Amino acid sequence: MTDIEPEETVDARGAACPGPLMDLIGAIRSAESGDVVRLLSDSGGSLTDVPEWADEAGNELLAVEELDEHNAFYVEKA
Amino acid sequence: MTERIVIVGGGTGGSVLANDLADRLGPELDAGDVEVTLINDGPDHVYKPVWLYVPFGKREPADGRRALDELVDDAVDLRIDRVSEIDTDSQTLRFDGTAPSMEYDHLVLATGSTLEPEQIPGLVEGGHDYYSESGATALREELLEFTEGELVLSVIGTPHMCPAAPLEFVFMTDDWFRERGLREDVEVTYTYPVQRVHGNPHIAEWARPIMEDRDINVETFFNAESVDPDAETITSMEGTELDYDLLVSIPPHGGVDLIEEAGLGDDGWVDVDKHTLEAAAADNVYALGDTADTGVPNAGSVAHYQAGVVGQRLASEVRGRPATATYDGKTLCFIETGMDAASFVEFDYERPPSPAPPSEKLHWSKLAYNESYWLTARGLL
After folding, report:
1. Can you give the residue ranges of the FAD/NAD(P)-binding domain (chain B) (predicted)?
2. Which active-site residues of A does the annotation give?
3. Which of these, B63, B55, B222, lies nearest to B130 by C-alpha position?
4. How do the domains of chain A map onto residue ranges?
5. Three-class SS of residue B323?
6. Domain B116-252 CATH (choose: 3.50.50.60, 3.40.50.1000, 3.20.20.120, 2.40.30.60)
7. Would you call A29 and B195 a contact, using CB atoms and an 8 Å cutoff?
8. Chain B residues 138-167 within an 8 A CB cutoff of chain A
9. Which of A52, B57, B177, B297 could form a disulfide with B182 if both were Cys (CB 3.0 to 4.6 A apart)?
10. Cβ of B158 and A18 within 8 Å?
11. Is the ipTM of this complex over 0.85?
C-alpha cells in the first residue's frame, strides 16, 4: 500500500483501452502542477499506456499498486 | 392504465426506437394501453455522416436533414421541446419555458453528443471541423481554396462521434489533392491522443502503414493544450508544437448537462449495464447511442442496433414478460480510404475488427447506405 494522497481519483474500471488513459489525460489536463491523480483501471493495456504517456508528457508515475482485480496508477502533473 | 414510454432525443437511436416501438407495440398503441412520446429540441432529424463529404463539395448539409414528423410513425407522439430536468425519483421530465412537465413509466435517453471546442483555448478562433453543419460549411470555404501549405487534422476529444471519420478525412484529403495535382504542395499531418493512430489497436495497425504509404505525417501522444490563431500553431500537453495553415480538429465532445445533473453519469454519458443498456443509477431508465457509456464507438450503427435491443426489452416489460434481449457490442463501419475506395469493419464486445481490403465496391456500398439511411430512420432497414 502506498501512502500517497491523491488530489483526484479517476475510476475507469470497466472501461476498455484507451478509455482509462484518456480519462487520466482529462484529469491531468485540469489539474494543477504538482497535483497527483490516481487512476483505477482493470484494463491490461493501462500497464503499458500509462507509463508510456507519463514519460512522453513529462509527468511522473509515482507508483502502481496492484489491487483486487485492478491497478491504481499515481501520476504527478509536472 | 396507460403505460408511458418517453424517448428523449430524435437522432438515429431515438428515431429508430420510436418507429420500432410503433411497429412492435402496434396493438397496445391502438388500444390506448401504451403511449410512446419522442421528444426532440428541434423539428428535424439530422444524419451527421453527410458532413464528412461537405468540405470536399460532394454533399450539402441539407442532404442530411429531414423533418422528424415525416420519419416517425403517426402512432408516436412527437413533442418539440427542450428537456431541462430529469427527476428519476418522481419519474418526471421538466422543460424549458412554460411547457408542462411530463411523467414517464419508462424513459430512454438518446440525447447524443455535443461539441465543446471552447475547452481548448484558441480552438474556436483557429480551428475548423466537419462535426457540425456550420463547421462543415465553413471548412468547405477554406478547403476548396486551399492549394498549398500545411493541413493539420488533430483529434482532440475522445470519445468522439464516428471514430473512423478522422482517418477517412485524411485519406480523402490525400487522394483529393493528389487527383488535382496539388499533393506535393500540401503537407498533411494527423495527430492522435494515444500512442497509435486510432483507439482500437486493430484499426490502428491497419491504418498506420496506409498513412506511411500516402506520406501522411503522424504525431501520436498529441493532446492539444492550446491553439494560437495568430501564430497558426497548435501545442500539445506533451510539449509538441505544430505549425498549420489549415487546422481541422475533432473538438472535445460531451453529453448534455442534464444527465450529470440527474446523477445518471459523468460528462453527459449515462452509466449503463453494457448488455441490457439499463441505467445503473435509476430504475426504468435506458440509454442508447452516444449517450450510453458502453465503451463501443459513438456510431450510428451502434445506436441502430441498440435501439432494436431496447425496443424488444420495453415490449417485454410492457407485456409483463422477462426482458431477455441484450446488446452484444455489434458495430459496423465503412471507412473511406480515398475519394473512390473504402474499407469495412464489423466487430462486437468479443470479436475485434479486421478491416476489409479497400475497394471501389465498398466505397459505393457506403454511399448507397447513406442514401438508404432514411429507411433505417423509419425503422424499415
Report:
1. 4-307
2. 17
3. B55
4. 9-76
5. coil
6. 3.50.50.60
7. no
8. 158-159
9. B177
10. yes
11. yes
Q: Considering the domain B3-113+255-318, what is its CATH architecture?
A: 3-Layer(bba) Sandwich (3.50)
Average pLDDT over residues B45-61: 97
DSSP notation for A5-48: --SEEEE-TTPPTTHHHHHHHHHHHHSPTT-EEEEEE--TTHHH
**Span B1-40, pLDDT tens digits:** 899 999 999 999 999 999 999 999 999 999 999 999 999 9
pTM: 0.95
Q: Which residues of A touch B331 (CB under 8 A)?
A: none
Q: Distances from the Cα of B88 to the Cαs of B92, B96, B123, B258, in angstroms?
A: 7, 18, 36, 12
Asked if A22 has any chain B CB less than 8 Å from its own CB, the reply is yes
Q: Where are the domains of chain B?
A: 3-113+255-318, 116-252
Contact indicator for B377, B68 with CB cutoff of 8 Å:
no
Same fold for the domain at B3-113+255-318 and the one at B116-252? yes
Cα separation, B3 vs B83, whole angstroms: 20
Place of cell 502533473: A77
Q: Is B331 within 8 Å of chain A by CB? A: no
Would you say how long chain B is, in residues? 381
CB contact under 8 A, B194 and A22: yes
Residue corresponding to grid cell 449517450? B291
Q: How many angstroms separate the CA atoms of A14 and B21, rounded?
A: 31
The chain B residue lying nearest A51, using CA atoms, is B195
Q: Which is nearest to B251 in space by CA: B127, B163, B143?
A: B127
CB-CB: which of A15, A49, A57 is closest to B238? A57
